[in-house]
Design brief:
Blueprint lengths: L5 E9 L2 H11 L3 E2 L8 E4 L7 E5 L5 E7 L3 H13 L5 E2 L2 H7 L1 E8 L5 E8 L25 E5 L3 H11 L3 E11 L2 E9 L7 E4 L7 E7 L3 H10 L7 E8 L5 E6 L5 E6 L12 E3 L3 E4 L6
Parallel strand pairs: 1-4, 5-8, 9-12, 10-17, 13-16
Antiparallel strand pairs: 1-5, 2-3, 3-4, 6-7, 7-8, 9-13, 10-11, 11-12, 14-15, 14-18, 15-16
């Protein structure tokens, strides 16, 4: 059983904040969140005060993934399990609690050194319901969380053991991913709730720790509309419209201003834990997702 409920937020380091504002708000249709200070910015996709945060950094890469737990007791239980496994974890101070807009937070790292923030009791914004400036449907969040993150790793077995044996994720399936004419690697997809995968691990020497972040919306029309408007918005499409083989997501990929990718899609498959059997796929997509930029 997973010790976390979902991926609650992602924090990315950015060198060009105005470009990220344009990308997240004017193109993708997120809302600005409350002011957090320190050069950081918060963005909303639902009633949570923050689902994506940007902080100044020349790395232009992932800074932290925030995983939600039920309450303070569950956070304490998680801390005890990490300690028993010899994994260092520290409580977040008042500054980080304020920036993340949560009541409690525990900071640790996975075997690749990715910062993980486990939190409970997030600030919500019922007085200002989410209303996208661009989209006609809602983002798919709730108990499923923000979306999913795909991480590049050089320690695939250690990473899989950490997420599965320590945090309690389950394997959804595997895909043989072609990275070129002479290189195929096995990606593993992991779930902690009915969303097909919350974390995926790609054993590949890539320049960014974060391969891509996925956001899901309710309507195929929003997916098609943003796909059509990418060129006029000067957002580079890196993967054409297509449907994935494993989670059945109808989606496309764009380059973020920090050069990792964002997947934007709909119709993601849900897992019934009672009947689910992991499978292996020979390709990432049933159709589409042609690489338009390497």
């Amino acid at each position: 059983m997973s010790l976390v409920e979902n991926l609650g937020y992602a924090v990315v380091g950015v060198s060009d904040q105005p470009a990220w504002d344009d990308f997240l708000v004017r193109y993708l249709g997120l809302m600005n969140g409350p002011h957090v200070g320190g050069g950081a910015k918060a963005y909303r996709i639902d009633d949570y005060a923050m689902r994506i945060a940007t902080e100044p950094s020349q790395d232009d890469d992932l800074l932290a993934l925030g995983f939600e737990v039920k309450d303070v007791d569950e956070l304490s239980h998680l801390g005890q399990i990490l300690a028993a496994k010899g994994i260092e974890a520290v409580m977040g101070d008042e500054d980080v609690l304020k920036r993340r807009m949560v009541d409690g937070l525990l900071i640790a790292a996975d075997p690749d050194g990715n910062r993980l923030e486990f939190f409970h009791t997030v600030r919500r914004c019922p007085e200002e319901p989410f209303c996208s400036p661009r989209l006609r449907s809602q983002f798919v969040t709730g108990s499923l969380g923000l979306g999913h993150a795909v991480l590049a790793t050089s320690r695939i077995e250690e990473m899989r053991n950490f997420y599965c044996e320590v945090l309690g994720f389950e394997v959804s399936d595997y895909i043989d991913v072609s990275l070129g004419p002479d290189m195929t690697v096995e990606a593993v997809f992991l779930h902690c709730n009915p969303r097909h995968h919350t974390i995926a691990l790609l054993p590949a020497p890539l320049p960014k720790r974060l391969v891509h972040l996925m956001l899901e919306v309710e309507s195929v029309d929003d997916v098609g509309r943003l796909y059509d408007q990418a060129e006029s918005a000067k957002v580079p499409v890196t993967g054409s419209l297509g449907r994935h083989s494993n989670d059945r997501m109808l989606s496309f990929y764009v380059a973020t201003p920090s050069e990792f990718e964002l997947e934007f899609g709909c119709d993601g498959r849900l897992i019934d834990e009672k009947t689910w059997v992991p499978a292996r796929y020979a390709s990432t997509s049933i159709w589409g997702h042609g690489r338009t930029r390497q």
